Amino acid sequence: MDKATEQLYREREKRYIDAVQLRIPDRVPTSVHLSYLPARFTGISYSDAYYDFPKWKEAYLKTALYFEPDRCEFFPNESGRVLEALDEKFIVWPGHGVGKNRSHQFVEGEYMKAEEYEHFLKDQSDFNIRTLLPRMYGLLAPLSTLPPLHSMNFMLPVHLFALPEFAEMLKTLSAIAHEAAEWMQQNQEMYAVLEENGFPCRMTMVGGPVPFDMISDLLRGMRGSMLDIYQRPDTLLAAIEKISDQSLKAIAAAPKPERFTTTFMALHRGADGFMSLDQFEKFYWPYLLKLVNALVDAGYTPEIFFEGDYTKRLEYLRELPKGKVIARLDRTDIIKAKEVLGGHVCISGNVPSSLLQAGDAEGVKEYCKWLIDVIGKDGGLIVGPRSVVDEVRPKNLKAMIDFTREYGRY
Fold it and tell me: Residue 89, class by beta-carbon neighbours within 10 Å (0-12 exposed, 13-18 middle, 19+ buried)?
């Protein structure tokens, strides 16, 4: 990094940190997760993000250098070849399950049946190995034939490993291990190359999702988890407590960040349309708050994507640590959010993706002017898209960033 780029990096990082920590920066910062936009912008396919990392890295950097947000977020993904070999069931990705120029999609499933809560609570390791993993990954189906782990009496069932299905599973795992590790390394190199070119982007996902979301997303599915609220609330709560304890231990064991580092979490089921306030207070909020407090105590800055509408829940957010959290808002009434959270939590967003996709540059500038004048008053604002930018018009995204840079000075 040359001196000019280093200076630019430091200015951008300070601007972002000042906004997060509720100091008045020199101007309103911008932050963008480019998602699959680099593919469209540079003429490659979305699927290159999964099958040709050098090409994807080049496209991502080229796009970042063109748009020049203050913070350029990057979310790592796995190799498509590794995912294919694993026969992963809970996601489809560009070139596999969807078209090569379509975004990835999460495939929700009931990977844990209601009657299996007891197994999960009493012996989670056995449940994970013999029940959950074989359902989530086709390659691991032979694991379901293992005897209960507690019955092995300190002996490996090596005779099973000689069976054709086990031998093939182990052979494939061995074959893909190197690429999986190499792909992970290339993900880390993406962060490095972005920073070397002046873009603060250091981020982690330590701690995992909110416990209720983990159950709803990866175990019971939305239908199952919502029924559990009514049909087996105590059992659901026991599972939430178990996952919460594991998350807190993982945070405590994680390396402490040596510099400003955000940790991203998206909230999926806690919004106004998914559960009542009483249910939110019982099953969701206490465990989100524990997670956030633990992350802050460990030195991280949680960036929480409040998907959907959290307008009725804004008062709860006053309990978040002051000046330590980024609230990225989607459909929440942002004026009300400023009234409730102003001077307490940094607000990120919320330029509508529909405006960036279907509007024009003048409309984007008008919205950003309003956002800066009203929500950015006295600091605590980061301008960014409400949601993903895969299909936005590049000139509109450029207008959002450039206008904020020019107009958003304090």
Answer: middle
Is the distance from CB of 239 to CB of 215 less than 8 angstroms? yes
Q: DSSP assignment of 146-179, as one string?
A: SPPGGGGTT---HHHHTSHHHHHHHHHHHHHHHH
Residue 247 in this model has a pLDDT that exceeds 90: yes
What pLDDT is recorded for position 151?
83
pTM for the predicted model, two decimal places: 0.94
Of the chain, the end-to-end C-alpha distance in Å amounts to 29
pLDDT for 146-172, tens place per residue? 989 888 777 777 788 889 999 999 999
Please say if the pLDDT value at position 260 is more than 80.
yes
The average pLDDT across 14-23 equals: 97
Q: What ranges in 200-275 are assigned the alpha helix state H?
A: 211-218, 221-231, 233-253
Tell how far CA 366 is from the center of its chain.
Answer: 29
pLDDT > 90: percent of the chain: 92
Q: Break the chain into its structural domains and give their ranges.
A: 3-77+183-407
Cis peptide before 350 (omega within 30 of 0): yes
Please tell me the distance from the alpha carbon of residue 84 to that of residue 51, in angstroms, as a whole number: 11
Q: What is the DSSP letter of 132?
A: I
Contacts of 134 (CB under 8 A, 6+ apart): 140, 141, 142, 143, 144
User: Domain spanning 3-77+183-407: which CATH class is it, in words?
Assistant: alpha beta
Q: Are 257 and 304 in contact (CB under 8 A)?
A: no
Tell me the C-alpha distance between 122 and 37, whole Å: 45
